[in-house]
Amino acid sequence: MEVVRVLHMNGGVGESSYALNSLVQKKVLSMTKPITEAAITQLIMCSSSMAKTFCMAELGCSSGPNTLFVAMEFVKIVSQLCRKHGHDQLPEFQIHLNDLPGNDFNSIFKSLAHSFHAQLLQEMGAAGVGGSAPYCFLSGVPGSFYGRLFAAKSLHFVHSSYSLMWLSKVPERLEMNKENIYIASTSPASVINAYYEQFQRDFSTFLRCRSEEVVGGGKMVLTLLGRKSDSASSKECCYIWELLTLSLKEMVSQGLIEEEKLSSFNIPQYTPSLSEVKTEVEKEGSFSINSLEASEIRWAACGTSGFYAPEYSKKGDDGYNVAKCMRSVAEPLLVEQFGELVIDKLFENYRNILSDRMSKEDTKFINVTVSMTRKE
Amino acid sequence: MEVVRVLHMNGGVGESSYALNSLVQKKVLSMTKPITEAAITQLIMCSSSMAKTFCMAELGCSSGPNTLFVAMEFVKIVSQLCRKHGHDQLPEFQIHLNDLPGNDFNSIFKSLAHSFHAQLLQEMGAAGVGGSAPYCFLSGVPGSFYGRLFAAKSLHFVHSSYSLMWLSKVPERLEMNKENIYIASTSPASVINAYYEQFQRDFSTFLRCRSEEVVGGGKMVLTLLGRKSDSASSKECCYIWELLTLSLKEMVSQGLIEEEKLSSFNIPQYTPSLSEVKTEVEKEGSFSINSLEASEIRWAACGTSGFYAPEYSKKGDDGYNVAKCMRSVAEPLLVEQFGELVIDKLFENYRNILSDRMSKEDTKFINVTVSMTRKE
Fold first, then answer.
1. Does A208 touch chain B (CB under 8 A)?
2. Given this model, what pLDDT does residue B186 score?
3. In terms of Cα–Cα distance, which of B140, B6, B132 is closest to B68?
4. Which CATH number fits domain B3-374: 3.20.20.140, 3.40.190.10, 3.40.50.150, 3.30.1330.10?
5. Per-residue model confidence (pLDDT) at position B314
6. Which among A104, A135, A152 has the least Cβ separation from residue B148?
7. Residues 146-165 of A with CB under 8 A from B
8. pLDDT-derived band of residue A177, with 50, 70 and 90 as boundaries?
9. Dihedral sign of CA atoms B132, B135, B141, B147 in order
10. Coiled coil: which residue ranges (chains A, B) (predicted)?
11. How many CB atoms lie within 10 A of CB B224?
12. Where are the domains of chain A?
């Protein structure tokens, strides 16, 4: 599977779109906001001179209400600090929105970009930054963040949330993973190693590329799906995929999916521990870690009564909401392997399995957030 | 009509897409290539020091084979000159692709960006620039070029072809233009003035915005649809729209279009003379003109036997090709005013009118190309 081509969140604003089913990702952005704010504040306070243009990149921006969430914070905080320090003129802002080429950039450009500028003007007044909003230049940057995306020393702040657990490719040597689609409690050590080694290669490549693009003293805040446990097969990171596997197996037993298709399918993702993230950052050596912490958010946070579109959210049906969230994320990968026809049924099964388990267990996603500074 | 929202070339790669019907625009790019090359060469030769990142913007890039045509020239020429002058390391390139938010950026990102990098690698070898292609960072920048789009002093080279004749809005006070949809031989002086004044406002705004974004010594090459004549109602620039008016009138007489809809419709375009362009550049004052010239290209150049997709091009049927070209450009504007249902019939009529006239007359588009340098 060619991940760069296939992987992307569901576009548009329809029922299965990521835009309408990314509430849990939004909540994680709110949870990690203090870390982001601290990084941005430190960026400005430690700068010896004020840049004329501040440049940030949102990596894995997708398309929807989360796309410009941190960009808005960035512009507000920097502007407030500039005013506070008596700068007459606000700096200009360059906001790069990056995702893989299959991302729905048209949707961002047609509606989000417009509403961003309107909201900015409103927020700048409310935040006491004066009536005028600064120039904010938005651009869409298609491509994999496992390669260079921006000019050398051009970025002041890099942000990414719920993107970097995606690998550049499905690891090799996963034959032994049989009917699992991700690391599972039954996965042999060789499979876990194959996944971990791919993560190490990808994450160090990511750090090396960003080290060329971020200015000395620049900041980077990354949140990944991860785990607290040392064990990569821990339930806290694998369970969500194990339950999808159950749904796929049900389809196999009904003859709707070929067994061979299931055994050759593996999700290009890795959910690292805090220490695995720390090890790679220290090994690459260009960034120093300011903070590294885990947080958790309940699967049920995928729902909570129609935050974006009441008509699509069935209050109280947690399985429904989690299934929709996972569909908006994984549908393109699943369609590539199993075809479009099985998708509705697959997620109907998945929803039932999720509802059952969530009513009996306390199910959570673990987030790993690392805040770093580019060494001078 | 809200031009920023409505105006865009037809997206995708279907039969009516701009991508498949922009052969005449491609030929104009080839015709003006020596001017572009001279500007890029001069940019490098006159620089006191070599930039580490060269940044260019293609304004009104649309989506199709022309989108990255000049960007490719830019990267090749600059790289060749760097090698020639013994620079070990090639600079990095930042290519901004700008168009209005309705442009099909997804198509650019999904296929063109990929093929650009592949072609670049090939061309760099062929052009004797050594085997390795330099880093080229592509970004999509949505928005009107009648406002700021890029950070201050961030651009080395700006290019635009067949875009700047589009105005930011339909001029006011066009009530007297009745059933004409553009300046026509029957348009009163007040209508011509209204159009000209809108052009003056827009073009000077454009120059002021770019003057902030282009570095001292930076270059700008613009090609617009225009005219050689002093008269704005000259047939050389108005005839193409007058014939579309005939088709619209035919639809009115058949009861397919309301007369009121026709009389309230005017195309947001102005086709300036050389001296009108010169006047605005000198008035604004930030740029000095290196060259200013008119060229012409026959309407028949819209076709010439299926350059891109043989199956869609009917050899020898010039009216067919011109109608398709005009449809790929003007369809969104016409749909907004007259609805989707009339479009097929409208362009069928138009094609017949065009075929008839083109068989009897020597019909041409006039291009105005101006090459400028940002004063230091």
1. no
2. 86
3. B140
4. 3.40.50.150
5. 47
6. A135
7. 148-152, 154
8. confident
9. negative
10. none
11. 24
12. 3-374
